[in-house]
Amino acid sequence: xxxxxxxxxxxxxxxxxxxxxxxxxxxxxxxxxxxxxxxxxxxxxxxxxxxxxxxxxxxxxxxxxxxxxxxxxxxxxxxxxxxxxxxxxxxxxxxxxxxxxxxxxxxxxxxxxxxxxxxxxxxxxxxxxxxxxxxxxxxxxxxxxxxxxxxxxxxxxxxxxxxxxxxxxxxxxxxxxxxxxxxxxxxxxxxxxxxxxxxxxxxxxxxxxxxxxxxxxxxxxxxxxxxxxxxxxxxxxxxxxxxxxxxxxxxxxxxxxxxxxxxxxxxxxxxxxxxxxxxxxxxxxxxxxxxxxxxxxxxxxxxxxxxxxxxxxxxxxxxxxxxxxxxxxxxxxxxxxxxxxxxxxxxxxxxxxxxxxxxxxxxxxxxxxxxxxxxxxxxxxxxxxxxxxxxxxxxxxxxxxxxxxxxxxxxxxxxxxxxxxxxxxxxxxxxxxxxxxxxxxxxxxxxxxxxxxxxxxxxxxxxxxxxxxxxxxxxxxxx
Length: 479
Fold this sequence. Notes:
Layout: E1 2-6, H1 19-34, E2 39-41, E3 51-61, E4 65-67, E5 86-95, E6 101-103, E7 115-122, E8 126-128, E9 130-133, E10 139-142, E11 152-155, E12 158-159, E13 163-164, E14 187-189, E15 194-197, E16 200-201, E17 204-207, E18 212-215, E19 219-228, E20 235-238, E21 243-253, E22 258-259, E23 268-271, E24 304-306, E25 311-312, E26 316-326, E27 331-332, E28 335-343, E29 349-351, E30 369-375, E31 381-386, E32 395-400, H2 405-408, E33 418-421, E34 425-429, E35 432-435, E36 447-454, E37 466-477
Parallel strand pairs: 3-5, 3-28, 4-6, 4-29, 5-7, 6-8, 7-9, 7-10, 9-11, 14-17, 15-18, 16-19, 17-19, 18-20, 19-21, 20-22, 21-23, 21-24, 22-25, 23-26, 24-26, 26-28, 27-29
Antiparallel strand pairs: 1-2, 1-37, 12-13, 30-31, 31-35, 32-33, 32-36, 34-35, 36-37
């Protein structure tokens, strides 16, 4: 059993929220605090910040391409960030088919990348480490040539990431907005010209060959459509952080374009439209082919498309009703949310977890919990679990099997056998941490012990952020 109490390790970023939205989310947080009484859990749910791609209908990563792991040597940051790099679909998830598709690039060595879908399909040239599928309402199939892996196949009901009976996480909130219908509010950028824009409500943004648009301030920019059909070194420059682009119908971004080349932080795209030709105005390639019952049924030009081979820096792109079409020989460190995601040409690109912190945090509590452990041959202890980071782990408490006080009031130093501070713990991934020294160096002698994690003190309240106690099995130290 895991006894868990989370008391306010909230990580909430108000992304250009209105006062009404802030009030609504604040009331939600207060209700969640009221529900945060101790309860038995097996592990945390899947977390949306751990997904590079998450869609409702179809995720078609057909190759060539790759996903970079945060944990492996291919990740460019040191130390690595403590978020996973998963791909998820609530319906169909296909890897491979047109070229070698590495998920992750070092497949099939199991790291911190999984393909998680109701129906998972591995096709030609798929190279996958970890598959999680729904064995009750879904399926898993593997057919074709040159398939490598997976090293681990699990189900929604029982898996090493989210525990028991966990489904994919909800999307962040999608704003309500309406663009201008007045043609006088069009923004037309002539070839090689530059236009400076302030936050506001516009109709269409049309950019010509090598045109430049400067988004000059933080804020919300609303359009009916963004149409850049010219394949050239055009630029959408973000001159401030926290810029929100809202688009009512569709986005068409031509090849070689530079979107946020300065890598301003907190840049997000919300696109509300369906896959549709919009009477011929949308020249994007076709999105996914939807079966009857999913709207719009059939196959139509995608609601969002970037032809790649340039620069694209955004925290996330969210297209809840349409397809995200992507191609280009480049690396994307963006999160992609929506109805569907499609690699629409066999031109390889790389996906990796965003380097900046997530632009959003679903209001909730970050709980670190132990799910398993192993006593290593050198006397050190390796712990497996969820949400391990310096933000969520303050101490590891080790207490005797018969010590009941810790189970009712758990704080730093509650372990009657030993307390191991975060400075003595090596966190190698969000699901793995190891003590720096043998347990004997912390005063642990022979006996049977349980363990728990104490969260850091909340600087706003001065209270311990919470705790999680693992009692599924005892740590046995022989004389």
